[in-house]
Amino acid sequence: MRKYNVLIAEDDTDDYNFFVEGFEKISTSYCITRARNGLECITYLKTHNNPEIVFLDLNIPIKSGLECLKFIKDSNAFQHIPVVIYSTSHYIKHIDAAFKGGAHYYIVKPCNADLLVETLNIVLDRLEENLQTPGKAGFVVRNLVTLEH
């Protein structure tokens, strides 16, 4: 596996620490940068080298995760960056909005570290294999929500 420069937009310190602990258990090199709100996320993207992957919580202050997703996907400079929604929300309307907005995957925040590690490994392996957005059936990783219409 290659080295990942990861940007995560997450305002909750406990959720952020849990996420970092998950990455620490993965046998890969990484550098995680945290944005505490949507404006910090956008500012980081404009002023730093592009990360290889962005994780967005939906419910972050100032600009929401969906607003950040729109900014990323509407920008020629950033639209190639894979975006993974990392949220507690399991509502179909949020998942559909993220899918339609161009996110690569949607992770409902797992409740334990082992499940988080397993989920992160799945996402990173899939992104390593193919950087194209999956079909709707593979969009939600490790969740009981079905997206069939």
TrEMBL record:
SMART domains: REC
Domain called Response regulatory: residue spans: 5-124
Keyword RNA-binding: no
Keywords, in A-Z order: Phosphoprotein
Residues with the 4-aspartylphosphate modification: 57
Keyword Mitochondrion attributed: no
Coiled-coil features, chain-numbered ranges: none
Any single GO BP term: phosphorelay signal transduction system
Protein name (record): Response regulator
